[in-house]
Amino acid sequence: MRGAVPPGTPCWADLATPDLADTRRFYPELFGWTAHVSPEPDAHGYTVFRHDGRAVAGAGPPAAPDQVPIWSTYVATDDADLVAGRVTAAGGLVFVPPFEVFDQGRMAVFSDPAGAVLSVWQPMTMPGAEVLGVPGSMAWNELVTPDPEAAKVFYELVFGWHPEEQPADGPYTGWRLGDRIVAGMMPPLGDGFPADLPAYWAVYFAVDDADATADRAVRLGGEVLVPPRDSRSGRYAALRDPQGALFSVIARAG
Fold first, then answer.
1. d(CA 5, CA 10)
2. Kind of pairing between the strands at 200-206 and 246-252
3. What is the reported pTM?
4. What is the DSSP letter of 167?
5. In the chain, at which end, N or C, are there fewer CB atoms within 10 A of the end residue's CB?
C-alpha cells in the first residue's frame, strides 16, 4: 500500500512519553485533538490523535525507562530494510531494526552520525498522517545539527535528498526531493535550549495563531523555550510539554 505522501517525505510524528494520561490531556486542549487509544494489549496504550476525524500524530510509552520524552519524525519509504542498510553504510546507527507494527506498517529507528534520531515508515494499512500542513496537523520537520556538512552527505545517501541553501535570517538548508523541499536543516538555536542538546529532528505543528498557542501551552503546564517570532515562513515558537518533550508551532505566512 502506498502512503499518503511519497517515499522520502516525512509522513508521521509520534511522542514517546512516560505520562500518556497527561499527554492525552495536554495536546487535545492545546490543538483541539481527540485521543484514540489502541485496543491492542501489545500496543501499551499507543494513542492516535485525530483532528476533525483525521489522524495527525501519535503517542506511546518510552522504549526504555531512561528515554527522555521526545517527538519523533517518520519518513515514508517503500522498503524499510533497504533504508536500514543505507543508514549503516552511510555511518549512521540502526537502533531498532525493521519490524512490523501489527498490520499497520513496517518501521525502523536510526540515528545520523551526529546523533539525531529518525524513523522510517513503510505503510501497510496505516499510511501515516491523513492530513498535513493545516492548523492542528504536522507542518514541517527540521534537523537541528552542529555538523550540517556531514548531514548533507548522510541524508543524500540514505534518502536521496539534495541540500539547497534557502533564504533565511541565518544559515538554513532545504532538503530537496524531486520538485519539492521536503524538510529543512539549521544549526542549533542556542537561546533557550540546553547547551549540551544533541542533534535532533524538530517537529512543527501548524496553528492559526502562534502567540495564542504559546500562551495556552503555558496555561496547560508547558513552557515556552523560544517566544513567538517572525520568519520568512511564518510566525513560530518553540515549546516544551509538561513532561519535557520539545516541539514547535508555526502560523504560516500568507
1. 8
2. parallel
3. 0.94
4. -
5. C
Domain that holds residue 221: 1-253
pLDDT in tens, the chain (254 residues): 344 689 999 999 999 999 999 999 999 999 999 999 998 888 899 999 999 999 999 999 998 888 899 999 999 999 999 999 999 999 999 999 999 999 999 999 999 999 999 999 999 999 999 999 999 999 999 999 999 999 999 999 999 999 999 877 678 999 999 999 999 999 886 555 555 668 999 999 999 999 999 999 999 999 999 999 998 889 999 999 999 999 999 999 76
Put the strands of the sheet holding 173-177 in their side by side order.
162-165, 173-177, 180-186, 138-144, 200-206, 246-252, 234-240, 223-230
CB contact set of 50 (below 8 Å; sequence gap of 6+): 33, 34, 36, 56
Question: Based on the number of CB atoms within 10 Å of its own CB, is 220 exposed (0-12), middle (13-18) or buried (19 or more)?
Answer: middle
**Under 8 Å between Cβ of 47 and 57:** no
Long-range contact pairs involving 175-181 (C-beta distance under 8 Å, separation at least 24): 177/6, 177/8, 177/9, 178/6, 180/9
Cell digits for 175? 532538503
Cβ-based neighbour number of residue 192 at 10 Å: 12
- CA 155 to CA 137: how far, in whole Å? 25
CATH of the domain at 4: 3.10.180.10
For the chain, the domain total comes to 1
- DSSP-assigned states of every residue in 12-29: EEEEE-S-HHHHHHHHHH
Q: In angstroms, rounded to a whole number, what is the distance separating the alpha carbons of residues 116 and 3?
A: 24
